[in-house]
Amino acid sequence: MYDMSEKTQKKSWFKGLSQEFKKIIWPDKMTLAKQTAAVVSISVVLGAIIAVLDFVLQHGIEILVNLG
Predict the structure, then answer these.
(1) How many Å apart are CA 6 and CA 12, to the nearest integer?
(2) How far is C-alpha 37 from the chain's CA centre?
(3) CA dihedral in degrees (58, 59, 62, 64; nearest 10)?
(4) DSSP letters along the chain, please?
């Protein structure tokens, strides 16, 4: 069973959480779209860079191993 202090603590915690959510400044649709496009494009570019490095290193090591 819960005692009153535990219920009061939970109520206080949710009240504080609610107050913090009211302080959030949400971006407008245009800003959100620009930021989303930036994140997606950077992710694609970094993924491509990692794929190219992986390919080069894999085949480079394979060539070195086959030389010996």
Answers:
(1) 10
(2) 14
(3) -110
(4) ---HHHHHHHHHHHHHHHHHHHT--PPPHHHHHHHHHHHHHHHHHHHHHHHHHHHHHHHHHHHHHHH-
Q: Which amino acid is at 31?
A: T
Return the pLDDT at 45: 98
pTM as predicted: 0.61
35: Cβ–Cβ under 8 A, 6 or more apart, which residues?
Answer: 27
Question: Can you tell me the distance from the alpha carbon of 66 to that of 68, in angstroms, rounded to the nearest whole number?
Answer: 6
Token pair belonging to 8? 């009061």
Q: pLDDT by residue (tens digit) across 9-60?
A: 888 889 999 999 999 999 999 999 999 999 999 999 999 999 999 999 999 9
| Token pair of 52 as six digits | 């190219």
pLDDT at 10: 80
